[in-house]
Write a structure and sequence with these properties.
globular; alpha+beta; 164 residues; single chain; four-stranded antiparallel sheet; 3 helices
Length: 164
């Protein structure tokens, strides 16, 4: 009898906990260009690397969201592009209705990209390697900090609008 009560109590707790599940992780788009090859291979290797990052999400249906992390890496030597690599790593995530509405933006803009980033980083490293360029390992990204900075910028912009 006591065991049944414990099991019933455990089921109640499980039903109240926010539910989150990865449905699928996939490459949505990939591009690798070496517009100045083979001449770029003869240059002294002193590159400048720039990385752009973007996160988008789309609600597919109730409790189901697609999150797309796009990383664009541009490697230049002087004025010439050595390579341009872009990977759009996507995931479909199930987020239960018991997740508080105010937590959803952080889940979609920080938590989910944290899951997707290692896959995107691996794809970029693989593409750069196949292009016969020196190994490129992207540094980890703190998406929670990026999200917090974005929120601060939004609040500052709204504050400026109210002052005007």
């Amino acid at each position: 009898m006591a065991d049944e009560q414990q099991n019933a109590g455990a089921q109640d707790v499980q039903q109240q906990e926010p539910q989150f599940a990865i449905q699928r992780i996939y490459v949505k788009d990939v591009s690798f260009e070496t517009p100045n090859s083979p001449a770029i291979f003869r240059k002294e290797w002193a590159p400048t690397v720039s990385v752009d990052m973007n996160v988008n999400n789309t609600k597919l249906e109730d409790n189901l969201h697609e999150v797309v992390l796009t990383l664009t890496v541009k490697n230049t030597i002087g004025e010439e592009t050595a390579f341009l690599c872009e990977v759009a790593q996507a995931g479909i995530f199930s987020i239960g209705s018991e997740v508080p509405e105010e937590q959803l933006p952080q889940l979609l803009a920080a938590f989910c990209p944290n899951i997707l980033f290692p896959y995107a980083r691996e794809s970029i490293a693989n593409l750069v390697n196949r292009g016969t360029f020196p190994q490129l390992n992207l540094a980890p990204v703190n998406f929670d900090a990026v999200f917090a900075q974005h929120i601060q910028q939004q609040q500052a912009a709204e504050g400026q609008k109210l002052d005007a």
